[in-house]
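Record pair follows.
FIRST:
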Amino acid sequence: MELTGRISLRDNRSLSKDEFARASEICSAIRKLVDSRADFIAGKGLDPAIALPGNNWDPEADQPFLNRYRHIVAAKYEVINRLRLYAQFSSFDLVTQSMVTGGREVPEIPEDFDERFEKQFPKPDHWIDRYRMITRFVPADIRARFPRVLGEIGWEIDGHPVNHDVYAYQERINLMFESGLIDELRRRVRTNGSVRILEIGGGYGGLAHALTGLLHGAVKYTICDLPESLLSSAIYLGVTHPRLGHRIYDGADPANLSVPDEWLGFRYVPNYLFDDFCGLGEPVDLAINTLSFPEMTEAQVRYYGQRLKGLIGGGGVLFEQNEDGRWMGLLDCKTILAESLACRHPILPKTIPVISKGRADLWSMEPFEMIVSPERRPFGGAGLRIRLRVWRAFCLVRAPGLGLVRLRQALQARLSPAVFRGLKKIWNLFGGRMKA
């Protein structure tokens, strides 16, 4: 894979008047949902401990995420046109090219941003190297392609932008591919015409975009999230997939969630209206949560686990990639999910030297081998498995930073949350922040 240059704001196409008009309509619809949420929840008698934002998303706490939401929902063209620089969900800031450990302040984008950015960051960072590592052994049609629009910046590989976020979503695609899940979804598309995917916590829509591309648009894709987050995913996916359907559900009539068999596209469901979606009785082929369950309260994770049990039924799967957040005052969501979901299938990566965050597991109500036969999974040959082990070891030698990440993950898995928290503080004092 050849790295052919940089992709800057000047290389992005600008939104058309029609695209911006649709984005403005989305801003208006989401603003109404947020402004009426408390009264709606009270009027319907919903449990506020489940329905209202909590933990990292508690609006009564010091809540930096809301700053960016308010900036985007104001529906200014210069902000919407560069949405990716403002819609920050991955703890990585594209503007500063760094992991964010404190607040998520709204960035300023000056007129000469490209010139300043290119001078400050003249060379690709380690995420570009890691992307090239993890795509080395996967087929070309398993590589996610992201468009040059909405402020996507990075480095050009095979004609498409690559940056930290692209790496993160490709990592999840690799894990699904290695488990045989991508092949199974494609088989279901050939058999049924489409697949039903539910993502709980969709960020700005990057993974939804990637999977939709790999499945050639044959998806009924539902994103359940806080309305503040649905704002970004609805705009991003509306621009990148204009030929598919898009519905923002406001709770007025559950019938508006129902779609005909031939319908393809995206439904955006506020978290406090998730029971309306569950009430449709639609089976889900694939449910997804990455990195957001630990940010919720224990009651909220348990709520989703109980409902996922019915949604995935006998033939569906939950793909979940999360870390044990207890060392930083959050949750170990996996112990809570185990209360509702019968079978856990860890994904041990073959094409990824070191996973960036957390551990990836597949959850189902029947053994995963009954859903995807081991014979259908890639990398089954003994010779190739040995080659991949040697290659991963070589990557760790060539990139010592990855070895530190592997060490951190090993320590976190073996030490108590309190001990690991103390170790992390010592590391920060002497060695700088443990990079993810």
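SECOND:
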Amino acid sequence: MNIQFSNRTAISVILSLSAGILLFLFWLIYFREPIPRDNILDLSFLPAVNALLNSASSICLILGYLSIRKGNRTRHTKMMLGALTFSFLFLICYLTYHAFHGDTLFHGEGWIRPLYFFILISHISLSAVVLPLVLTTVYFAATGNFSRHPKIARVTLPIWLYVSVTGVLVYVMLYHL
């Protein structure tokens, strides 16, 4: 069964899906009470796992970029699928952690506090932007539209990389400073 979508339909689906995911995340973190942690597994390890997944995604993004610059399309595809997989696993772990834990407060003081919030706000804002960009970039690659894929990838890559790296920075600042 081969279903064909127009680019317009695909982009509409991507934007709707992205908006739904972002609204769900916003509700999950800020409006819903966390699930009581009585008699459940300790999930305090998940923020560290999330930082590792973001690090792995960053590495794959860089290696994927370097691969395509060298003309190695096969390795580029593998690295970008790796980045996508690590980012998807991150999302699952992030949702799981926040379903049980809720929001995590930053307790740092002094000069680190405004720096943390600058990084956090830019990270959150750009993560909302990067989701539909990533899905659109993947869509164009998967459908073989290699006239549009590199154009949007040039915008997607630096934002995705920034979001992945700042995700690790937020973790370090939140749990280790």
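COMMENT: Residues 61 and 158 are 9 Å apart (CA to CA).
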